[in-house]
Design brief:
Blueprint lengths: L2 H13 L8 E4 L3 H15 L5 E4 L2 H10 L14 E4 L3 E2 L5 E2 L6 H9 L4 E6 L12 E5 L4 H10 L4 E3 L1 E2 L2 E2 L7 E5 L7 H9 L4 E4 L1 E2 L5 E5 L4 E3 L4
Parallel strand pairs: 1-2, 1-3, 3-6, 6-14
Antiparallel strand pairs: 4-5, 5-13, 7-11, 7-12, 8-11, 9-10, 14-15
Helix pairs in contact: 1-2, 2-3
The protein binds ribulose-5-phosphate.
Length: about 230
């Protein structure tokens, strides 16, 4: 296992300490979350009684594989905790998410949780957002028009592809990966994008994060907000 994977494993496994008996948990997506679900599955086998809501089909499959019981929002509308990865985390804990294409469900889950814990390896910690291209989920119908409106905001949108075809999210939508350069005001940019007809959601998560657990090859640290 390389150092980045060791760091992801440590961050993911450490986050499971926050989970207590009886909790409803939002399960994020991605390779760091994989380690969290695996560890959570071990605790469930040892008697922990919890239920999770998965943010992607892949997460649902992992939860089934590791024996984590699942539910959905018809049973519970407020989660005790959500745990998810990120593509970038700035010092104010604004995030870029959506590298795996699950940003809409991830945001619904994070917004429904009393506590939102972000698990990342150290490479995701940045001084300002924007190096990672911002994923924006848009409706397939008229996607070219929506992309043109995003381009007018200087976003340089590129349609995400899966081979030759457009990548299709779990919600049946497209994703454009946008280069806005350094993002100085993530909240305002998010609001500008959300106003465009055809935009479903952006990968900017602002004022949502409760705690960041950063993984390093030999330890995981809970960060202080600056
Ligand atoms: C998926 C996400 C992931 O959380 C993000 O891409 C980080 O993934 P990983 O833990 O594999 O680095 O936002 O939509």
């Amino acid at each position: 296992m390389n150092n980045q994977d060791k760091a992801k494993k440590l961050a993911g496994e450490t986050s499971v300490k926050h989970i207590e008996n009886g909790m409803y948990i939002g399960l994020g997506s991605g390779s760091t979350v994989y380690w969290m679900i695996r560890k959570l599955g071990e605790r469930v086998q040892n008697g922990l009684d919890v239920k999770g809501i998965p943010s992607s089909r892949q997460t649902q499959e992992w939860a089934n594989e590791f024996g984590v019981p699942l539910t959905d929002f018809s049973e519970i509308q407020e989660l005790d905790v959500a745990i998810d990865g990120a593509d970038e985390v700035d010092p104010q804990w604004n995030l870029i998410k959506g590298g795996g294409g699950a940003l809409v469900r991830e945001k619904i889950i994070a917004a429904s949780a009393r506590k939102f814990i972000v698990i990342v390896d150290e490479s995701k910690l940045v001084s300002q957002l924007g190096d990672f291209k911002l994923p924006v989920e848009i409706l397939p119908f008229g996607w070219e028009v929506t992309a043109a409106r995003i381009a007018e905001l200087d976003g340089e949108p590129v349609l995400r592809r899966d081979g030759h075809d457009a990548f299709v999210s779990d919600n049946g939508n497209y994703i454009v990966d946008c280069d806005f350069g350094v993002i100085n005001d993530p909240k305002t940019l998010h609001q500008q994008l959300k106003q465009l007809t055809g935009v479903v959601e952006t990968g900017l998560f602002t004022e949502m994060t409760s705690e960041v657990i950063a993984g390093y090859p030999d330890q995981a640290k809970t960060l202080q907000k600056s």
